[in-house]
Design brief:
about 375 residues; alpha+beta; Beta-Lactamase; 4 domains; five-stranded antiparallel sheet; 10 strands; rod-shaped
Length: about 375
């Protein structure tokens, strides 16, 4: 009797389990999404009504050839990922094209999740295939629009790697997206810029702050051009970064203009310095010496005037004093135009000498700090 009771209870339990499973399958058949299940060994054991209607296949055909509806171009990568997901026994998702009953292919987002028993053992895989054809069309249109923009555009996940760049950037570098993905773009940076750029990018990714750097990128012809790279993070409702978007703006012409301005500014400064040197030399060697001679002659003239002619002697003395003042002013002007200490001792001593003179004249104490490398300068500088 006890054995009969056990068998009866087991039979009732199996019947209840089968009934529950049948009801679940009926429910799954009513949802407008393609659903299916797979045994741990990878064999399909169920597809819902929606799947069969979409593919136009029978349940027997699906069991015999479960990959029949997958686009031939997608099949190798899909199978490679599916085998890896099965080995990892972790939830996953993939995008692929599935053939409709009329022969047309549409894009689907396929999501799978493992079911485990109370011991953690894999019992079955469950999956759904969600139609994303409209979304993919919008993506294609958006990318076509982005590719038409005369600007280099890129984006990537929160970790700072790159997974997309538009045709403008790919064309400039002469590389495909596969070669630029991840960290591949970094090898296109100028060697002199790479350390600085990667440090700044790492800080932006770590801190979630906008990125902006001027950097040189190697083009398909091997030459480098300057770009202004900008990147901003996109955050979700919780404030977490989900993606980075950025642009590269060609500023080569601007950099060349800046370099030309620096060259012209340097040339102008050299011309100014040469003029100041010449004026200072002429004042000191010509005008200054003439005034010294004049002061000497005025002194001699004063001595020739009789003492009784005080007015004349005073007038000559005033002329001599005025001449001496002119000499001092010319020497000061010559010094200001081009301090001789620049040539004799170097820029550092010239600055110290100027600061000392300023302190003595104004009574204002100045603290001066110079780099150890400041010394004599070339005459052309």
């Amino acid at each position: 009797m006890s054995q009969i009771g056990v068998k009866t209870n087991k039979s009732d339990a199996d019947g209840a389990s089968n009934a529950i499973e049948e009801r679940m399958r009926l429910i799954i058949d009513t949802i407008p999404t393609m659903a299916w299940s797979v045994r741990p060994d990878g064999a399909v054991d169920f597809v819902n009504k929606r799947w069969l209607e979409y593919t136009g296949l029978s349940f027997e055909e699906e069991l015999k050839e479960p990959t029949r509806a997958i686009h031939p171009e997608d099949l190798p990568s899909v199978m490679e990922k599916w085998l890896a997901d099965m080995a990892a026994e972790e939830p996953s998702e993939d995008e692929m094209r599935l053939r409709r009953a009329d022969g047309q292919y549409r894009w689907f987002l396929v999501r799978t999740a493992p079911l485990r028993d109370e011991r953690g053992n894999l019992v079955k895989w469950y999956g759904v295939s969600i139609d994303i054809e409209d979304r993919k069309r919008v993506e294609v249109q958006s990318r076509a629009l982005i590719d038409a923009i005369p600007q280099q555009i890129w984006s990537g996940p929160a970790d700072g790697t790159l997974d997309y760049c538009n045709e403008r950037w790919r064309s400039y570098m002469g590389l495909g997206l596969a070669e630029l993905r991840g960290d591949g773009w970094q090898r296109m940076l100028h060697p002199d810029d790479r350390k600085r750029v990667l440090k700044a990018w790492h800080e932006s990714v770590t801190n979630g702050t906008p990125y902006e750097q001027e950097e040189r990128h190697r083009g398909a012809d091997g030459t480098y051009r300057w770009f202004l790279a900008r990147g901003v993070p996109l955050r979700n409702s919780e404030g977490h970064i989900v993606r980075w978007y950025g642009t590269n703006t060609d500023i080569e012409d601007r950099k060349q203009t800046e370099e030309e301005l620096r060259r012209l500014s340097g040339q102008l400064l050299r011309l100014q310095d040469e003029a100041r040197r010449r004026i200072a030399r002429d004042l000191h060697d010509s005008t200054g010496q003439d005034l010294v001679a004049l002061a000497t002659m005025l002194g001699q003239l004063r001595n020739l005037i009789p003492s009784a002619e005080r007015k004349s002697r005073r007038l000559v003395s005033e002329c001599k004093a005025l001449t001496l003042k002119c000499i001092r002013d010319i020497r000061t002007l010559s010094y200001v135009l081009h301090p001789p200490v620049l040539d004799e001792a170097g820029l550092g001593d010239a600055i110290r000498d100027y600061v000392d003179g300023f302190t003595k004249r104004s009574g204002i104490h100045v603290e001066l700090e110079l780099s150890p490398g400041v010394g004599r300068m070339l005459r052309d500088v």
